[in-house]
Amino acid sequence: MNSIQKNRVKDQIFKYWGIFCTAIGLVLWPDLFETRDVYMYVDDGAQTLIDESRDPNCKIATDIDVDEFSRRLMDLYMKQDYKR
Question: Each residue of 5-29: pLDDT tens digit?
Answer without folding.
Answer: 666 666 666 666 667 888 889 999 9
